[in-house]
Design a protein that fits this description.
The protein has 136 residues and is an alpha+beta fold. 38% of the residues lie in helices and 20% in strands. This is Heme-binding protein.
């Protein structure tokens, strides 16, 4: 039997708390989602004032970061016209996000889930996602 390590609800809460702190420091309310090793939603928070349109985006950024085990910003860097991953955003029933703000969660060098953040600029979303990921 293969054992797969994944994030727990407690892990997800810790990641989200760190993300909320970073978003408040930036003055940008965000949606923050955490998925497990299987890409399934563990927890999500929509900060007061965050766009409702970003709920789905944050969840899908987390899914994307886990599905490909890389940040959505890195995926986006290779998804433009003529690049190796051009059109990838149409895969997985349109769930793949090529906007910055999705980051894999690693424990002991292994990907155990991912966090997705949406609500600010790509730079803000990345900064919040990285601060959130650091809390794991």
């Amino acid at each position: 039997m293969i054992t797969i390590e994944t994030v727990s609800l407690d892990d997800a809460r810790r990641v989200i708390d760190a993300g909320e702190r970073a978003a408040r420091e930036a003055g940008q309310p965000c949606n923050i989602a955490v998925v497990d090793a299987g890409g399934n939603l563990v927890a999500h928070v929509r900060m007061d004032g965050a766009w409702i349109g970003s709920i789905d985006i944050s969840i899908n950024k987390a899914f994307t970061a886990r599905a490909f085990d890389l940040s959505t910003a890195d995926l986006a860097d290779n998804a433009g016209p003529g690049d190796q991953f051009y059109g990838i955003d149409a895969s997985n029933h349109g769930r793949v996000m090529i906007f910055a703000g999705g980051v894999p969660l690693r424990r002991g060098g292994r990907v155990v889930g991912a966090v997705g953040v949406s609500g600010g600029s790509g730079e803000q979303d990345s900064a919040v996602a990285n601060a959130a990921a650091d809390a794991l």
